[in-house]
Amino acid sequence: MTTGSTGGRRRLPLSLRRRAVPWERQRPTWRAARPAVIAAALKRAQARPSGNWYVVGASRALRGDRPLARTVAGQEVVVWRDAGGRAVAGPGVCPHLGAPLRDSPVRCGTLVCHWHGLALDGGSFAGWEPFPAHDDGVLVWVRLDAVGGEAPLDAPVVPRRPAPARALSSVYTGVGTCEPEDVVANRLDPWHGAWFHPYTFVDLTVVGSPGGPDTDGDAFTVDVSFKVAGRLVVPVRAVFTAPEPRTVVMHITEGEGVGSVVETHATPLGRDDRGRPRTAVVEAVVAASERPGFAVARGAAPLLRPLVRAAAGRLWRDDLAYAERRWALRSTGRFPG
User: Fold this and answer.
1) Which ranges carry the Rieske domain (predicted)?
2) DSSP state, 291?
């Protein structure tokens, strides 16, 4: 049973599950989740160009008084806004005596080293060379040609998103002991959703996967319902694609929020003190809706963003455990996939 509709459109995006089944009685997905399909999709993603661009963090994290700092593949990086508001980036090590620039303040668009006052405006100076930076309005990227080793691109491969004027965006960041491929492989396995995340997903069916008869291109197409409360759910169709080696994007193509996207970006951080790889998951939710009430939601964005981040964090506590387990098995030659 669903809510009523006017002109063929539901007044509310909710449905009531008529035949809800217990978690243990849902249809097993392990036969459909063929390791070879996931591995082949991962391999194709890894072969796509990234242009050496890496996600550093959220655009909103670029404050006026401090740089945004991240270690990418062992390289200390700082990003800040110059006097014109443009994102600039470069090494996070002061060229004078090696001070950590992540701890230095920004004054009038200039990063001022807190050890001896060496000032950086984003241009080459005293042996400090900038990195190309890109602010797409939701995320900040940095290009590290020495790390990526690919032919550089002028800009990162940014997925298609709703127009900023009608969207609400939120960014979650988590860190796990794994490599980017383990995060990407997690996202290229949509079959685990209702089993591993029953608090969020129900009635999940993968209706198309790469190489399948009902698939258009290299995508995973999923019919799934997001739980709201009790038997109330929001059913949607979602399509997962990997536009570059460290990114998987989910587009909502049918149901509530058509055009909304969830971008999962995996950024290698480097090794910990035990020699294990560390990877940052930077997930951007860019939501849109044609419903009149969504304008109110956009107006309440400062209140809603923490809720969206909390929901993403709950999912990623599980999914990072998945990715970490995958890496642990791979690194010891025990991974069965």
Assistant:
1) 53-142
2) S
Res 303: pLDDT: 87
The alpha carbon torsion through 254, 256, 259, 260 (nearest 10 deg) reads -130
Of 99, 66, 102, the closest CA to residue 81 belongs to: 66
Return d(Cα 56, Cα 265) in angstroms, integer: 10
| pLDDT, tens only, 6-63 | 344 455 677 888 888 899 999 999 999 999 999 999 999 999 999 999 999 999 999 8
Instruction: Summarize pLDDT for 194-218 with one digit per residue, the tens.
Output: 999 999 999 999 999 997 655 557 8
As a whole number of angstroms, the distance between CA 189 and CA 34 comes to 9
Characterize 57-83 residue by residue with b for buried, 16 or more Cβ atoms within 10 angstroms of its Cβ, and e for exposed: bbbebbeeebbbbbbbbebbbbbbbbe
Ranges in the chain, pLDDT < 50: 1-9
DSSP secondary structure of 183-223:
HHHHHT-GGGHHHH-TTTEEEEEEEE-TTSTT--SS-EEEE
Helices (H) and strands (E) in the chain, counts: 6, 19
User: What is the model's pLDDT at position 1?
Assistant: 34
Q: How long is the chain?
A: 337
Give CA–CA dist 11/4, Å, rounded. 6
Predicted confidence at residue 297, as pLDDT, reads: 80
- 252-259: long-range contacts at Cβ-Cβ below 8 A with a sequence spacing of 24 or more? 253/221, 255/13, 256/13, 256/289, 257/13, 257/287, 257/288, 257/289, 258/288, 258/290, 259/162, 259/288
Separation of CA 114 from chain center: 33
Cα-to-chain-centroid distance, residue 186: 12
Contact 209, 37 (CB under 8 A): yes
